[in-house]
Write the structure tokens for this entry.
Amino acid sequence: MAMPIDWWAESGLGGKSGFIKKWRKEMAEDKVGRRYWRAGDEVDLGAEWKVKVLWPPVGGGSGRSEEEGIVFRLDCGKARLLWAGTISAEGEEELVRLYGSDLEAGVLVQGPAKEGAMNLTQEWLQMIQPKTLIRSAKPMQDDPSLSVDMDRLAGALGMDVVQLKKSGAVRLQPDREMGTWRWEGMPK
């Protein structure tokens, strides 16, 4: 069953993905509204759902959306999820400096950094304190950020690492009162 789209948000910084370019064109042809999000934007989605945009900076960053993307915190009651795209270690460092403990979230969704760059730094993960990290699998190559050191750090933080091999493999349900997330659909 298809879900109707009233509007969609993006950084507006461009990108190389042919799929995304095609999708944007289809949205424009269907006259679906587009919003550009920047750090500091806060959006009330209703029923206790709120978005706080943390990245890209108001000035627009470097214009390389694959590296910068959108970083936002999704809140539902006390439950928090941090969407960090494929931000690099340098981006993580800047966000820790700018937001500190405001990054804390029970779930972190973050893909491998582009061009073999590292991410998931110790400082980043210690600031967020996620109980679950959801990470897309990098096809045909190793993910250098998922190392033995990362395994030790995940254990020390009590963090589950879920590596997805396909989209739509995990469904999250917030507990608004407890500030936690239930998830189902472990990838095989």
Remarks:
- Residues 169 and 187 are 6 Å apart (CA to CA).
- The radius of gyration is 17 Å.
